[in-house]
Amino acid sequence: MIFLYGLFLIGITVWSYGLIDINLTLFNNHYWEVFRQWIIQLGYFNRQTNVYVYIGIIIGLFAFYWYFYKYGKKTNPLLVGFIVGSILLFAYPALSHDLFNYIFDAKIVTTYHQNPYFLTPEHFRGDPWLRFMHWTHRTYPYGPTFILFTLIPSFLAMGKFILNYFLFKLLFISSYWLAIFFLNKKNKHWAMIFATQPLILMEGLVNSHNDLIGLSLAVVGVCLLLDNYNTLFSRLILIFSAGIKYITFPLVFVQTKNTKLNNLVFLSFIGPLFYLSFTREIHPWYFLSIFAFLPFFTKIILDFSIFFFGLLISNISFIHFGVMNIEDQLIEKNIILLVFFMLNAWFLFVKYYIFKKSSEFNKLVAYGLIILLAAISHLFMLLKTVPFSSLQIQQLLLSDIKLTIYIVPVLFIISIGLFLCIRRIPFILKIGISILLISLDYFLVHTRLFSVEYVVIFPIIICVEIFLIVVSYKKPRFITSYRINPVLQFGVFFIIFLTASVGLFHYFSTDFGIKTLYYQKAIADAIDEHKHTWEYNKIQNKKEYDKTNLISIKVFPKEQNISGISYLLKKDHNLQVRDRGLTYIICYDLVCKQKFYMDGILKRGDLFPPEENKISFDEIFTIYEVPGKVEVFGYR
Question: Where do the TM regions start and end (predicted)?
């Protein structure tokens, strides 16, 4: 299994170079250039495929993590950690540019002999390294401890970039090894969790965030504290950890035997994380430091594995859009994180409440409250994150989902209650209840007009379905004791399970960029604006044109749903989508990867319209007018 794990990590290392900065050339070698050109085709020009590959990587990492956690008792964590570190030393920080900022910040001291707290990287405009750097406008944002650590590899590299790159990577790998070494001395189980935890591997080793070094120092300090080794020295190391990222400062007050104080310390650490989550963008590496509490709260940390999985999955927004901090990327990321947080909360509710205590009636009441809270949370998260273009579009969104948000969950709870709690009802009524359950499921998943249901409804219905599946598997008597026909019971749960599986696949395979009504509204407005301009030009030039309100829409990729756009065009602009009329092409990928006509000639490949044909109207995408059969298309 270790051999397979190593091969899988090598695959991750190869994949990571698909997102290498276009302006960065690590090696002047023909074979390297051939490999680089091949791999960036996946990273930059097949982003949707790259998203699927990344999701597969995360699933694979968690599968190995689960295996080593359950069956790796005889495996040496030090060996696993050594293999992981040795392979990921060569991985490129695919989802972050921070490593290059660390390198340049240290260079300001070792090469330019200046203070990075006072001067920004862009102050040194002639430096060739700036061409592949980001965030060049900021001064040094970290604590003083980290700059001291980074001066060592910067000095040893003697100004050579490739040496800087690998020595900095080695700094992160070494801190990872150090943490595993100290954890292994206390508990091999802790060490194995740390060595294989996907969040640590991806955000700490691959993406090289300095939170890993702060985490490793904190782990060393905690382990020394548990050994009763020089308490003052242990707390000094914890202070050094806080000097990298101040969020680990509460660990300075942790105690070896005072559980109540440790709970308070843990809450004082979690509190700022939740504050940051509600006031700014949530980044996965913010949660790396939580593993410093592994010796004290192992069970809690393991229980939140679903949320950690969601943190890594949220990176698909960066892979998909290629940039951070844009509105559509933030919306997608917030939705993903909320979904997985609610799934994790539901898992904990089922694990610690449903199967361990309380009467059937109280279980049902708590179960219903969780559904309503999930629904309301999704509603308010949408209101908070979706950048509504007008009050009208906000009202349209609310009118579209309010029945689903408030009425359908209540009906669902009532039907579940009848299904689970009423012992003696006529057989025909049991069949009716089962049909009602399936009908509500179908209504929730398939029949909403807009794509909003994939954002709001799937997480709720998935929670409900997973609950039913778990209950039927773990405690079949909880269901069968109510005298429902076994064949009907099997049919109900089979359909629920099938719907949940299809729903999960569709939810995570659909382009998140079209899931908000905002984009559909923007596209509809753009089409209407262009059609008015086109008609006005025809009138001015005294040319004949089709005066009907019919238009034609072609969508790339073909599977994208345009029902919301069609509805808005009809409702707001009196334009009907048919097979004839002025043609509009909407590209939901970066380019239209289909055959197309230009200047009357059929061509294949990527459609890059000329700049002179651009009709700019909005920051979301641009309308181009192209001569030939394809007259205009939306290009995001």
Answer: 51-69, 76-95, 139-158, 165-183, 236-254, 261-278, 284-301, 306-323, 335-355, 364-383, 403-422, 427-445, 451-473, 485-508
